Fold this protein.
Amino acid sequence: MTRPLHPFGSVRARATLGATLVVAVALIAAGTAVLGSLRSSLIAQADSSAQSAAREVAVNLGLGHRFSQLDLGDGSEHPIQVVDAEGRLRAASRALQKITGTGVTAVKPDPPTTATPAPGPEKGTQPTQGEDEREEDENAYGPTAPGRIRDGHTFATGTATVRGQTSGYRFATARVDTKTYGTLTIHAGALRDAEQKAVSTATAVMLVGLPGLLLVVGGVTWMVTRRALRPVESIRAEMAVITASEDLSRRVPESGSGDEVARLARTTNETLAALEASVGRQRRFVADASHELRSPIASLRTQLEVGAAHPELLDLEGAVEDTVRLQRLATDLLLLARLDASGRSTAGRVELDSLVGEELRQRATRDTIAVRAIVEEDVEVTGSRGQLARVLANLIDNAQRHASTRIDVTLAKEATAAVLRVADDGTGVPETQREQIFERFVRLDNARSRDDGGTGLGLAIARDIAERHGGTLIVRTSAYGGALFELRLPRI
């Protein structure tokens, strides 16, 4: 039963949501950076404009101009304040009504006093003068000596009201040392309207455009992922049909794009092919096993029934042979089942030369055909000692069933492999049937029969064990015209 998808349970929905969120975060971050850069740039322009206005006034004062000679404007563009060392407002823009951000809230100059001292007496002059006397001297003799503008400016944000209209400003502060008035501080402002309007416009554009852009991104991503995932849906639908029908001969559709989805389809088909082959082998194995078991069981049953009815006719030796054959077949089937259920062998170190020696010593006392051996020493491999002993026993058993007079067993070391060869002087294996003999329950008509003691599984078991140990098992023609089985295993 197919469960309904969660609203964001599909890959397409998650991809669309993820892409939209990523774009949204990127756009917000980029917009914030742009707004910050725009604001910084416009503030820098305002600071430069305010600094120029403040410096212009400072230059005039430094040149000895009187307050009455300063042109500070009406304050609409550059509201200006001139403050003396005692914090008194000495000059200001004409239409200035209110100001914040400069530290001086006064907008009207304080009236002149009659006891303002000069910074210091000059040689040949009177020690002090009042404001009125100083202005009379200025009217009579012109400006006083130049002063000095101090380096460095400070900036602040505030507001100013000019002719009843309040606006935001950036204020620059400059200081100048004068001969007449001592140290004076000039506050000059520059409008922030351009900055505020530009930032407001950019913010409005972003707020209006961002949702639309996200909708476009989401829609495009939805369509692109839908097109990209269409082959995946085809694969899923076909796999559902295969699962329901249990028809492993079906295959999922493959595209020629060569992308990840195409490789997925190709791998899926390869898996289906391997699974079909495995199931086919399993079915053939079960059928062959049933067939192989039927003969000895039927023979044994017949002998027992005859023996029960006519004890003098009981073939006890034949019954024992059938029982042994059944036992061997059951043992081989159990081993194959264990091999099919396990992976590559990961057992410990095996001294292959010692294993070959033990097997040959056991056979020397019970076999009629002589076995000649040439075994190198210190040949070690990694694997299961019991399974490798089974391979050796199967190869020698097979050679003894087909040899005429001799069997040669050699074990040699190569650069990276241990090589075990078992050769006989029998009829050999035709080249066209050399792979067939490693299949389960296969007997060659000209070399085997069902009564020679074999189960038809020995060579299949031997190759299976060899491959699970990372090795190979092949058959060729020996120097005597018989079969030569060569086992190669990775050497330690």
